[in-house]
Amino acid sequence: KKFNKYLEDTIIDRVGGFYMFFKTWTDDIISNIKSLNESLKQIDFRESPKTYIKLDHKFKSNENVKEFKELLHNAISRVTDLDKTVDGKRLHFENNILPLIDKLEDEKWREKVLDVRSWYEYKAEEYYREDEQKFKTYSGMGHLSGGEKAQLTFTILGSAIAYQFGLTKDGLQSNSFRFIAIDEAFKAQDEDKARYLLKLCKQLHLQLLVVTPADNIHIVENDISFVHYVERKNETTSWLYDMSIEQFNKEQSKYTDS
To answer: Which of 73, 81, 97, 234 has the smallest number of Cβ neighbours within 10 A?
Structure first.
């Protein structure tokens, strides 16, 4: 009787919960990609002609994951039709649940199958905004230049921020905290990609703090309203000057070598 109750109230219930955990995780991934794509479609990836990025996913052909899903399905698929006798429940446990438990004891196999994110292959696709035709597919970043990698990363990260905080092109109509800081964002990048980042932040109505050397201020000067200029004196003391961008432009020679 104790074994019967343990099977019915504990093992079988937990197997069902285990199955629902992975189903929910899978559904969440699909739902999140859909939501990210809604945010991505609001962002212009290229200006001429205008394009946008769309994320795509497909299930990998993976024998380990396939085996795991089959074992999990077998462990729960016959629960509703289970023989109500003690022997019937024990037989289901031995034939369907125990093989899954035994397999999960293999740590290397477990690491290969328990992260649902790794069940899928992901890629980014670029579409023309005017006619919705596909322009380009990004299945990896190895063949991209540093600037192209940065632009694609900025775009997807921007869409994630927009999704996370509910930002849209009409975002100024809502009250939300939308402050981000970017440290040396323009290092080793061409100016066009740097300006793309600024345009993206403006498109998402983000309040931006840019930390950059003085020789890159010309990249951001048309997109900022205030400057906090830090100067090292005698390698021992730092001085902070606060001023509007208009004042900085007038007095720039006092602070920079240009």
So the answer is: 234
Q: Is the dihedral of CA 15, 19, 22, 28 positive or negative?
A: negative
> 26 vs 11, 63, 246, CA distance in Å?
23, 18, 52
CA distance 220 to 245: 10
- For residue 99, is the peptide bond before it cis, meaning its omega torsion is within 30 degrees of 0? no
Backbone torsion region of residue 213, taken as left when φ is above 0, otherwise alpha when ψ lies between -120 and 50, otherwise beta = beta
Distance of CA 148 to the CA centre of its chain: 18
What does the chain look like in DSSP terms, one character per residue?
Answer: -HHHHHIIIIIHHHHHHHHHHHHHHHHHHHHHHHHHHHHHTTS-SBTTTTEEEEEEEEE---HHHHHHHHHHHHHHHTSTT---SHHHHHHHIIIIIHHHHHHHT-HHHHHHHS-GGGGEEEEEEEEETTT--EEEEES-STTS-HHHHHHHHHHHHHHHHHHHHT--TTGGGS----EEEEESTTTT--HHHHHHHHHHHHHTT-EEEEE--GGGHHHHTTT-SEEEEEEEETTTEEEEEEEEHHHHHHSHHHHS--
Q: Residue 86's pLDDT is what? A: 61
**pTM summary value:** 0.71
Q: What is the pLDDT of residues 177-223, one digit of tens each?
A: 778 887 766 666 677 778 888 888 887 778 888 888 877 778 888 88
CA-CA distance, 134 to 44, in Å (whole number)?
14
d(CA 106, CA 27): 26
How many beta carbons lie within 10 A of that of residue 58, not counting itself?
Answer: 10
Q: Tokens 């093992």 belong to which residue?
A: 11
- What is the pLDDT at residue 5? 65
